[in-house]
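Methods — Computational structure assignment.
A single polypeptide chain was analysed. Its primary sequence is given first, followed by the predicted tertiary structure written as structure tokens.
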Amino acid sequence: MRPFKALLVVLVLGLLPSIAALALPPPRTVLLLGDSLSSAHRIPVESGWVSRLQARLNAASPIPPVVVNASRAGKSMTEALEELPGLLARHHPDAVILELGGNDAFLGASEVQLRGDLSRLIDLVRDAGARVAILGFEIPPRLDRDHCGARLRGVYRQVAHDKEVMLLPSLMAGISDHPALLLDDGVHPTAAAGQRMLDNAWGVLAPFLLEGDR
């Protein structure tokens, strides 16, 4: 092979990884705005369902979405409304997952307030050009005071319908009624429950987050 051709081959081969990288879409960002159910409350972070979600996305996609977990124990939708504009400006997410409402219902928020706050969160996300999904929380009967469980359930269903948003009715399905999967407070999931929470959410989140790979 002539020296010039040999050099050209070396240069092309060296550029192939860069060319391939240019041909692939950039990683997407997913913002998860949640409460203690998503913040790995009192369990190792790697055991929480959000860390498990990132691991499953990494295995499912050549360029997986990057999940930014902005969850915090005790977070209400009222607090999330204050935080969301800054989070959207900082992270520029392509998709936002809302896992909120349980704390508001426990604290006695009315149906009107619950519906209004959840609707405003969705509007803020969409105004920023991102897609949105809701992960709900089914309040266990033993913790249900003043019918707050039915109130929250109805709000999730109505807002998801009116706003045409993907909804998982309960992230804790099959967990809240199993004491062995709950911490000593009887509400929050143990480390062992993280995989089941991910399995609950995956049916909704897989098409939502991997849409570009299908």
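Note: The beta strands are 29-34, 66-69, 95-99, 131-135, 166-168.
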